[in-house]
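STRUCTURE:
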């Protein structure tokens, strides 16, 4: 993993924290699926980084069932056409991308089989990134950080709030 030219990026949502924050505010049937929040946050941050490097972003997800694949593709299309779906006032501290910027940066959406080497690499990154939200001393997470294989290693401290790995609804 050290030699592959990639950096780990994630939006990790703590389900109990999410429920505590939003269950009273929204009825069960009006809350978003966690995947919608995670997808939008993670893809937008990756798009911002691509844009700063004058690049386009190709979004690949691991193939699931047809309904889920279609739902996530809809998130991508909505994001390209309408911008970020979050409340403007509460999200402005994250410097949300404009609809124009997202339309320019978001180039392609595809699904890949679990057997794809790209998806297997993503899986190798995912567990340590998730665990990092609960325990920054988790050995695989710490190793990725020490090897500078996290997106947080390539950005400044000031940029982490709007570009870095997002740990959402963690009460720390």
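SEQUENCE:
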């Amino acid at each position: 993993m050290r030699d592959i030219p990639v950096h780990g990026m994630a939006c990790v949502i703590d389900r109990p924290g999410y429920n505590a924050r939003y269950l009273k505010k929204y009825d069960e049937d009006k809350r978003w699926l966690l995947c919608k929040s995670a997808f939008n946050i993670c893809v937008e941050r990756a798009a911002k980084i691509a844009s700063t490097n004058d690049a386009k972003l190709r979004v690949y997800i691991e193939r699931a069932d047809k309904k889920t694949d279609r739902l996530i593709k809809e998130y991508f299309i909505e994001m390209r056409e309408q911008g970020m779906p979050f409340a403007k006032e509460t999200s402005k501290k994250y410097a949300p991308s404009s609809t124009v910027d997202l339309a320019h940066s978001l180039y392609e959406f595809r699904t890949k089989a679990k057997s794809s080497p790209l998806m297997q690499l993503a899986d190798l990154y995912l567990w340590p990134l998730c665990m990092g939200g609960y325990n920054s001393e988790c050995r695989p997470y710490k190793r990725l950080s020490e090897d500078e294989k996290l997106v947080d290693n390539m950005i400044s401290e000031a940029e982490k709030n709007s570009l870095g790995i997002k740990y959402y609804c963690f009460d720390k």
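REMARK: DSSP finds eight helices and four strands in the chain.
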